[in-house]
């Protein structure tokens, strides 16, 4: 518990941002955790009220208070509907960062937390070792054995649940080594592409499909070396310093010899984080300007392909397809039409809008691991709507959403496939 | 808090948990804190919050409250603008968040039965595919609940042609203060006898707690046309409104926004309002295709007389939605112009628009506080919003005084204290501006007929004390506290 004295010290919150909230309540129905619970404490307005109360010295930061902030998925749907323009993302990010000093966490979770955030996510080589081990675990039949014997249940329910989230490894790792993929067209534009952290390891095939689509749109693609995680995961869980470090590394990696080419991003969450490097590094004398320039170059792949007027291939897909908005694409990048336009452009597709498509699926980066109960509550409603939609395929634009939807579909036994929009487009070019 | 008070609260919490289940009773400090506000300026902390799932549970809660002599305040989404859902005297807040089901839709007889926690817009979205909708559309419709709408008799832009909440509620199940459950009005049609339904609507939770509602559904119009008209000055825009109404026309809605609102709304949603204009009108026509087109020509001709800077028509639903999104979000968007606003809700005769707006403008210039004007102009419902910064010493006191003065202007020009937000905590002390002691005594007789203990949302609607404008001002300030969060 913190002393009142300490709390009345200069706030970690930007007051002019905090007091923009006039508590009109327009955010309530956009918030997945409010929809799941009906509780004001689990709403954006409630979370802001708690920040204000702490800021004004009317409330101490207790475990209960932290719970309400921790339960925020940070989907930022509230920001998209807020008439006052409250930058909720900034507020919750700096709150999470501040909370690190208040947390009482057991030794083992703390170790797992520190190792993942300091040595795994930011380091492609270490992360690749982990995913290689996972790949071995799945392919060797060990996973089957573990699931059949339910051995993990003996240790803890939580561990068993975690095991179920083991991502499948799709194809070879996609490593960022400065490679160049030519569109084989003369006088074409060159773009740079983010490889990222988890996606290139678990979804190498999908990354390669994304590159092919950029080539189809007549763009040469470079994957700069020395790039890495965008910092989103660190900033969500309260590690702004590490996030800044990662941001600086990426700015350097993508600015070697050229600082004007578009930086295309195939995972919506990373794109959103990178678009806000300008804000993240605004206090950094050396990087503030570079970060603003960098952020301007960042563009989501769906937006980029839609603007490039990519024409799908000749093969048609005779399926009912729906689309789940990736929160950070819709709410932060404000890209809502582009993925839908791309899907609808595919021959044979019967597009249907998913009820509540703009409500989060509960993935939230590491949220599905750290807050499994709420994550599942939010996912359940999503899967119910998906079942009602009658769709054969649900498309999305972010690896977190992809895995979460995939887990939900499997658990519910639905006959629905999850695909990236770019993956669907790629299929139209394949010979049947 | 004394030891005996604490132990009584602990008993109460334990009993409440027995009624609704442990997970649906909240009494942590953080919980109490986020249930102390609504969409406006007042604040009051409950002792405990309970989330019941049925009328039976609410009945038990009310019986328990009576046994403990503790006040009960029902709460929808907490978007109200007059403090109606504020637990000013502490007590139990009953959140309707779990009672949010649409129980029945009868598209042939065009009614629906809903629970009070159903979100206003969700009902229209739900019945939309059947060509139906629920007409009252407060600007907060995507968050506010039908139950809350009933408490405040909420309006909205389209109440010009379609009427306010009371015109769309056929009947409702209520729990009375003694815990008995009964039904006011009819299920499927208008009732006979004393209109207890009508009395309860707008009573702000002081007479009964509504647990089930039968609402009228309307057939979606065949054709809708939304017209944006920009004028150089707010006087021109007001004159155009008077012209339209004077010609005997009743569009579905006539909304007006001044240059402050235009700026804020543009910043928020980019609805495409021309930024140089002194005021814009948003006029909506609906009905049969030919009738709408005819009406449109007539209205356009009237407006042309007042030299509009621009007339723009939205025919398709996307364009219309864009024009409306600016209007519906404008209140929250005022947060872009100043850290705080104080929205005043009053109604005047439409012929007095120009005169009253001039007086408000003078008040703004005299006091130095900008006042943004958004109006349901068609029915003379004003929403002057005073922009201020709560952190500046004296601002809160000053804007409350200005608000009070605006209401005096409204009443003096033949208007009323509230168009659609209710009296609540905000305007109770201004009631004597409109009502004589005899009027008020008659109203209290009605309240007494429902309950004598004064436990249902006490301290609302009726003046709390001397009933003089100046004193009420002091009381308001005492309640909020100088420099307090408002």
Note down, in words, how this protein is organized:
The complex is a heterodimer of chains A (432) and B (486). Chain A is an alpha/beta fold and 432 residues long. Chain A is 52% helix and 8% strand. Chain A has 26 helices and nine strands. With 486 residues, chain B is α+β, with helices and mostly antiparallel strands. In chain B, strands 12, 13, 14, 15, 16, 17, 18 and 19 form an eight-stranded antiparallel β-sheet that branches. In chain B, strands 5-6-10-8-9 form a five-stranded antiparallel β-sheet. Chain B has a four-stranded mixed β-sheet with strand order 1-2-4-3. The longest helix of chain B is centred in the first third of the chain and has 18 residues, at 3-20. The two termini of chain B are 26 Å apart. The model of chain B is unreliable at 466-486 (pLDDT under 50). The A-B interface holds A 16, 19-29, 38-41, 43, 45-46, 49-50, 52-53, 56, 58-59, 62, 64-65, 68, 81-86 and B 26, 28-31, 33-35, 37-39, 51, 77-79, 95, 97-98, 100, 117, 119, 122, 140, 142-144, 267-269, 329-336, 339-341, 390-391, 485.
The gist of it:
The complex is a heterodimer of chains A (432) and B (486). Chain A is α/β, with parallel strands linked by helices. Chain A has 26 helices and nine strands.
Could you give the topology of this structure?
The complex is a heterodimer of chains A (432) and B (486).
Chain A: H1 4-7, H2 15-18, H3 32-37, H4 44-55, H5 63-70, H6 77-81, H7 88-99, H8 107-120, H9 124-139, H10 142-149, H11 151-155, H12 157-164, E1 179-181, E2 189-193, H13 199-202, H14 204-216, E3 219-223, H15 232-236, H16 240-253, E4 263-265, H17 268-275, H18 277-280, H19 288-297, E5 298-300, H20 301-307, E6 320-323, H21 327-332, H22 337-344, E7 350-351, H23 367-370, H24 372-389, E8 393-396, H25 399-412, E9 417-420, H26 421-427
Chain B: H1 3-20, E1 25-26, H2 29-34, E2 48-50, H3 55-68, E3 72-75, E4 92-95, E5 102-106, E6 111-114, H4 120-127, E7 132-133, H5 146-152, H6 159-162, E8 169-175, E9 181-185, H7 196-200, E10 209-216, E11 218-219, E12 223-231, H8 234-246, E13 253-258, H9 259-269, E14 279-287, H10 289-304, E15 310-314, H11 317-333, E16 340-343, E17 346-347, H12 353-367, E18 371-376, E19 381-388, H13 395-412, H14 437-450, H15 469-480
Parallel strand pairs in B: 2-4, 3-4
Antiparallel strand pairs in B: 1-2, 5-6, 6-10, 7-11, 8-9, 8-10, 12-14, 12-15, 13-14, 13-18, 16-19, 17-19, 18-19
């Amino acid at each position: 518990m913190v002393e009142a004295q300490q709390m009345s010290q200069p706030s970690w919150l930007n007051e002019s941002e905090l007091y923009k909230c006039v508590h009109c309540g327009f955010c309530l129905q956009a918030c997945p955790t409010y929809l799941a619970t009906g509780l004001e404490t689990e709403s954006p307005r409630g979370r802001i009220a708690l920040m204000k109360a702490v800021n004004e010295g009317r409330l101490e930061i207790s475990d209960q208070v932290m719970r309400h902030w921790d339960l925020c998925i940070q989907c930022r749907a509230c920001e998209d509907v807020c008439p006052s323009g409250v930058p909720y993302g900034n507020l919750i990010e700096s709150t999470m960062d501040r909370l690190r000093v208040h947390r009482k966490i057991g030794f083992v979770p703390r170790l797992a937390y520190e190792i993942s955030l300091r040595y795994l996510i930011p380091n492609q080589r270490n992360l690749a070792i982990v995913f290689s081990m996972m790949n071995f675990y799945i392919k060797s039949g060990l996973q089957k054995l573990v699931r059949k014997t339910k051995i993990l249940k003996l240790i803890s329910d939580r561990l068993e649940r975690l095991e179920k989230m083991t991502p499948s490894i799709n194809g070879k790792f996609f490593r960022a080594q400065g490679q160049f993929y030519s569109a084989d067209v003369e006088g074409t534009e060159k773009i740079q592409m983010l490889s990222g952290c988890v996606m290139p390891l678990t979804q190498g095939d999908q990354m390669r499909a994304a590159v092919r689509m950029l080539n189809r749109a007549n763009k040469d693609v470079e994957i700069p070396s020395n790039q890495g995680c965008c910092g989103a995961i660190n900033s969500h869980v309260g590690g702004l310093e590490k996030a800044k470090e990662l941001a600086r590394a990426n700015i350097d990696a993508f600015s070697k010899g050229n600082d004007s080419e578009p930086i295309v991003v195939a995972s919506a969450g990373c794109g959103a984080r990178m678009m806000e490097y300008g804000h993240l590094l605004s206090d950094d004398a050396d990087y503030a300007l570079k970060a603003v320039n960098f952020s301007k170059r960042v563009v989501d792949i769906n937006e980029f392909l839609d603007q490039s007027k990519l024409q799908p291939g000749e093969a048609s897909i005779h399926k009912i397809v729906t689309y789940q908005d990736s929160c950070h694409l819709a709410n932060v990048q404000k890209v809502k039409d582009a993925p839908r336009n791309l899907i609808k452009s595919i021959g044979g597709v019967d597009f249907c809008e998913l009820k509540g498509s703009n409500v989060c699926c509960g993935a939230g980066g590491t949220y599905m691991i750290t807050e499994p109960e709420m994550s599942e509550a939010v996912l359940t409603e999503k899967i119910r709507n998906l079942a009602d939609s009658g769709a054969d395929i649900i498309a999305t634009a972010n690896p977190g959403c992809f895995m979460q939807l995939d887990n939900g579909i499997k658990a519910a036994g639905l006959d629905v496939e999850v695909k990236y929009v770019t993956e669907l487009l790629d299929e139209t070019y394949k010979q049947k | 808090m004394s030891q005996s008070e604490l132990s009584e609260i602990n008993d109460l919490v334990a009993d409440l948990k027995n009624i609704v289940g442990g997970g649906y009773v909240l009494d942590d400090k953080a919980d109490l804190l986020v249930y102390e506000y609504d969409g406006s300026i007042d604040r009051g902390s409950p002792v405990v919050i309970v989330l019941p799932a049925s009328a039976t549970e609410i009945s038990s809660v009310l019986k328990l409250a009576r046994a403990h002599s503790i006040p009960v305040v029902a709460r929808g989404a907490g978007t109200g603008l007059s403090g109606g859902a504020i637990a000013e005297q502490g007590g139990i807040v009953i959140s309707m968040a779990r009672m949010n089901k649409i129980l029945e839709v009868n598209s042939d007889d065009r009614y629906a039965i809903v629970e009070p926690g159903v979100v206003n817009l969700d009902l229209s979205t739900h019945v939309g595919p059947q060509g139906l909708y629920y007409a009252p559309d407060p600007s907060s419709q995507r968050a506010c609940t039908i139950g809350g709408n009933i408490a405040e008799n909420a309006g909205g832009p389209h109440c010009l042609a379609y009427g306010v909440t009371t015109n769309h509620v056929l009947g409702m199940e209520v729990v009375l203060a003694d815990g008995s459950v009964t039904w006011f009005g009819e299920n499927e049609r208008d009732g006979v006898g004393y209109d207890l339904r009508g009395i309860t609507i707008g009573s702000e939770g002081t007479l009964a707690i509504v647990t089930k509602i039968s609402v009228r559904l309307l057939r979606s119009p065949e054709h809708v046309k939304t017209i944006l008209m920009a004028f150089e000055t707010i006087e021109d825009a007001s004159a155009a409104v008077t012209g339209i109404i004077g010609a005997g026309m009743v569009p579905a809605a006539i909304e007006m926004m001044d240059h402050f609102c235009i700026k804020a709304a543009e910043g928020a949603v980019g609805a495409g309002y021309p930024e140089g204009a002194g005021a814009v009108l948003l006029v909506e026509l609906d009905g049969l295709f030919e009738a709408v087109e005819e009406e449109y020509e007539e209205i356009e001709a009237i407006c042309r007389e007042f030299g509009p800077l621009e007339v723009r028509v939205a025919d398709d639903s996307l364009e219309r939605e864009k024009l409306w999104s600016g209007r519906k979000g404008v209140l929250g968007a005022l947060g872009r112009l100043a850290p705080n606003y104080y929205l005043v809700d009053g109604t005047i005769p439409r012929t007095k628009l120009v005169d009253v707006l001039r007086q408000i403008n003078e008040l703004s210039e005299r006091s130095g506080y900008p006042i943004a004007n958004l109006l349901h102009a068609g029915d003379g419902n004003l929403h002057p919003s005073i922009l201020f910064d709560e952190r500046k010493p004296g601002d809160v006191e000053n804007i409350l005084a200005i608000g009070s003065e605006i209401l005096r202007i409204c009443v003096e020009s033949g208007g009323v204290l509230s168009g659609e937000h209710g009296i609540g905590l905000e305007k109770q002390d201004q009631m004597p501006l409109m009502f004589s002691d005899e009027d008020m005594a008659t109203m209290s007789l009605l309240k007494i007929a429902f309950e004598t203990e004064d436990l249902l949302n006490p301290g609302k609607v009726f003046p709390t004390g001397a009933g003089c404008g100046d004193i009420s001002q002091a009381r308001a300030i005492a309640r909020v506290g100088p420099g307090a969060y408002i």
